[in-house]
Amino acid sequence: MTDTTVISTEGEAGFGDYVALLKPRVMSLVVFTALVGLLVAPVPVHPVVGFAAILFIAIGGGASGALNMWWDADIDRIMTRTQKRPIPSGKVGADEALALGLALSGFSVVMLGLAANVAAGALLAFTIFFYVVIYTMWLKRWTPQNIVIGGAAGAFPPMIGWAVSTGGISVESVLMFLLTFMWTPPHFWALALFMKSDYNAAGVPMLTVTHGHDATRRHILVYTVLLAPVGLALAFTSIGGPATLLAAVVLNLMFLHGAWTIFRRSTEQALADGYAAEKRVFRFSLLYLFAMFGALLVDATLRGLGWDVMPWL
Q1: 242-264 and 171-193 helices, crossing angle to 10°
Q2: N or C: which end of the chain has fewer CB within 10 A?
Q3: Inter-residue contact 207 to 192 (CB < 8 Å)
Q4: CA quadruple 6, 10, 14, 18: dihedral sign
Q5: Is 261 exposed, middle or buried (0-12, 13-18, 19+ CB in 10 A)?
Q6: What reaction does this catalyse (predicted)?
Q7: In degrees rounded to 5, what are phi and psi of residue 232?
Q8: C-alpha distance across the termini of the chain, in Å
Q9: What's the Rg (C-alpha) of the chain?
Q10: Most distant CA pair in the chain: distance in Å?
Q11: 34-44 tens-digit pLDDT
């Protein structure tokens, strides 16, 4: 259980500290994928409703971040990468983070349900629950497969955006979910390869800690191979098209090349060049997801202009 007796040692929290508590970098991914899910859906949404929906989804994502930081404050104080977060740095009290996270969670779910539909609100509620309870409180400190299962939480936003538009779930929204879900393990394990000491010190059973670098490299390659057909499948759905197909072919080949390069390296080689290949794959993985969802937007735009972007269907 997280220590909730942290006392501020660096003065009163500023607005920026509360923004940081909501994990804005993670929120940007949530907002973007949810927006794409909404825009590529076949049912048009009034701009005001769409704006409100994305806002409430963003708030829900931020609420999840605040609750995650509340629970993980003890290990955040140990890990170099997270020591400057608002709670371990003493800028925001753990009780404040808990109250803010709970309040924003309830607000975002209710308001999304009212602004869009019950299905979207329910999906957002489940996403927050999954990230906070299933991943943060349970899996993260229990299994080296924490990232695999916990990655589902970050994969729900495009499904929520789709539900805002359609009121339901479809093959297209499930494939968008799977794209993010299968992308998450190689993305985070590439990071873990050069951040192993942090997770080891904090006692988090990341795959690099429990099974070592060689096993992690194999897992990265396997999940990258499994990721490739998901992107290709999206190109042949009602929301796909030439841009998605081109992106899926080029980006997956590049991702596979990076994963193969990592797989063939030894720990000694990685140490010798400062994990340069692992860092390149991690950075590329960020580009990969934004580019894949961006390609879906390009095809949706072309479709909106009346172009026949899917002659194969």
Answers
A1: 30
A2: N
A3: yes
A4: negative
A5: middle
A6: heme b + (2E,6E)-farnesyl diphosphate + H2O = Fe(II)-heme o + diphosphate
A7: -65, -40
A8: 53
A9: 20
A10: 63
A11: 999 999 999 99
Tokens of 234: 């999206």
**The pair of three-digit structure tokens given for residue 160, joined into one six-digit string:** 């929520």
Angle between helices 47-71 and 157-166 (to 10 degrees): 150
> Locate tokens 């769409």: which residue?
50
pLDDT in tens, 243-275: 999 999 999 999 999 999 999 998 889 888 989
Tokens 């994305």 -> residue: 54
State which amino acid sits at residue 62.
G
Map the chain to HEC letters.
CCCCCCCCCCCCCCHHHHHHHCCHHHHHHHHHHHHHHHHHCCCCCCHHHHHHHHHHHHHHHHHHHHHHHHHCHHHHCCCHHHCCCCCCCCCCCHHHHHHHHHHHHHHHHHHHHHHCCHHHHHHHHHHHHHHHHHHHHHHCCCCCCHHHHHHHHHHCHHHHHHHHHHCCCCHHHHHHHHHHHHHHHHHHHHHHHCCHHHHHHHCCCCHHHHCHHHHHHHHHHHHHHHHHHHHHHHHCCCCCCHHHHHHHHHHHHHHHHHHHHHHHCCHHHHHHCCCHHHHHHHHHHHHHHHHHHHHHHHHHHHHHCCCCCCCCC
Task: Classify the phi-psi angles of 104: left when phi > 0, otherwise alpha if psi is within -120 to 50, otherwise beta.
Answer: alpha
In this structure, what token pair is assigned to residue 76? 């955040």
DSSP 85: S
